[in-house]
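Q&A log
Question type: sequence-to-structure
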Amino acid sequence: MKLILESMGQDVRIAIRSLRRAPLFALTSIAIIALGAGAAGGMFGVVHHLLITPYVVPDPGRVVIVGDHRERHGEAQGGVSTARFLAYGKAKGLERLEAFRYDAATLRTREGSTRLEAARVTPGLFATLGVGMAAGRDFTASDGLPGAPATALVSQRLVNTRFEGDVARALGASLVLDGTPTQVVGVLRPASELPAGSDVWRPWSPAGREQEERADRSLTLVGRLRPAISAAALQGELRAIGREQSRQFPSTDADLAPRISSLSAGVLDEYSPVFEKIMLVALVFMLLVVAANLAGLQLARGAARQREWAVRAALGASPARLSQLSMIESLVLAALGGVAGLGVAA
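Response status: OK
Response body:
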């Protein structure tokens, strides 16, 4: 065993010296591996977060996602208009019904402007979910009132990038978002982000928005069931409310129907398994392209090293020994490329 380890150590040193004599080949190979492995690893991280890792809340069986879908068009799950949100909020089977929608924010700093992934949420969203803040406070009802001072919750990522990880410094800080000075009042736990990937959450209230365009279905609703109320019972109640809305507003709501799903299922729906398979095939093809590029580089390098191999063979190196040297060199490249790929994946 000792002799084997010493032989491998010697081969690693020879491989490193050989790669140092061919820096262009080495750097190109490492870059190809890093990009291929890093992209595959990063995509797996996204899928793991969205499709595998559940959103952890207290008593998750009572937390539901509510959306509208167009039955005639085969729509799986769509957004909800403000008017229908207010109508669904009257359902007796729900303790509370809150909403969020995707948004974007422009953060202005001394260095310039930065676009942030953001969300607008009703002030009671995180209280309904039952998740607490990592630091600071949650939104209150007064934060969503017209004319209230601008407030925001931020992610731990934003604290790390803008405040060097200093949570105490972030709390109470004023961020200029879309030209408006906005006070940071709380920091969300990474596992409590909804929608996932946002860095800023700002309060939004449906008050006074009843007459907004009903075709604007940008809201996703989150509700908590009352004790002893089943999801099936809530589905029936929401369908009755939806039918009444469709009757009153046939031009926009004629074929809309509510659909509920459990938050504990994450974003899994009938499209997710298809997406997962498509992504898997795409990753396999991408890695095959990486392998083909590396094989081409190795063939070119092998042709250029024919004289070196001939000299080694003349000095007594067996075919097995030459194959071992080539394999060790490939493993060194793979290790260096894998380390660089961690940065790409991150």
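Response note: The mean pLDDT is 83.
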